[in-house]
Amino acid sequence: MALTIYGDRISGNCLKVKWTAEKLGIPYVWRETNVLDGETRTTGFLALNPAGQVPIVILEDGRALAQSNAIMVHLAEGSALIPADSYERAKMYEWLFWEQYSHEPYVAVARFQMAYLGKPRHELDAKLFERGGAALQRLEDGLEETAFLVGDRISLADVALVAYTRVAHEGGFSLTDYPRVVAWIARVEAELGIA
User: Fold this and answer.
1) Do 133 and 103 contact (CB within 8 A), yes or no?
2) Please, what are the domains in the chain?
3) How far is the CA of 5 from the CAs of 70, 152, 155, 184, in angstroms?
4) N or C terminus of the chain with fewer C-beta within 10 Å?
């Protein structure tokens, strides 16, 4: 029995789970779950995840697991995507926590509002762009000395952060001021086999 991933292909949070499974060669069944059509609010879906969010995975033993970064960590346990060195592993977690608190709420939210809800930039809170820009600068600074966010090899930190960074332009962010980020996106996409 394969892993089942409930996800929406417009969601970077869902795609990063998919990419992790693919990078690790974990077989899965994808169940497209359209957020815009309210599929995460149905009785059947809420029975799987009372929070009404994707992604959620149903493990081979039938247990459910939600929250993209928790799912990725579970899937990658014991793999090279989680650094063996305790300090580097902690740095990976630092980036994962930061991604959900200081990157995704701005870059991803601006993208969703503009690309999927059709709102023009001037109707959105200016703080989305201020804080999203600060997040992109933090990535730029974090890549000053290394090819990836935690050293010279890909980790879950890169998978998590590339998901929305690579489509930041859809949320009104220009990456031209972040050349290290642009080069890093290309490296991570190559490692994951995505384009």
Assistant:
1) no
2) 3-76 (3.40.30.10), 86-192 (1.20.1050.10)
3) 13, 30, 21, 27
4) C
Among 188, 179, 128, 137, CA closest to 161: 188
CA-based R_g, the chain, Å: 17
Q: Which residues of 53-65 are buried (b: 16+ CB within 10 A; e: fewer)?
A: bbbbbbeeeeeeb
Average pLDDT over residues 38-54: 95
pLDDT in tens, 128-165: 999 999 999 999 999 999 999 999 999 999 999 999 99
Please state the φ and ψ torsions of residue 146, each to the nearest 5 degrees.
-135, 155
Nearest residue to 163 (alpha-carbon basis) of 18, 7, 23, 16: 16
- Helical ranges in the chain per DSSP H: 12-24, 43-48, 68-76, 86-98, 109-111, 126-142, 156-165, 179-192
Both tokens of residue 99? 């991604």
DSSP state of 119: -
Question: pTM higher than 0.90, yes or no?
Answer: yes
Gap between the terminal Cα atoms of the chain: 29
CB 3 within 8 A of CB 28: yes
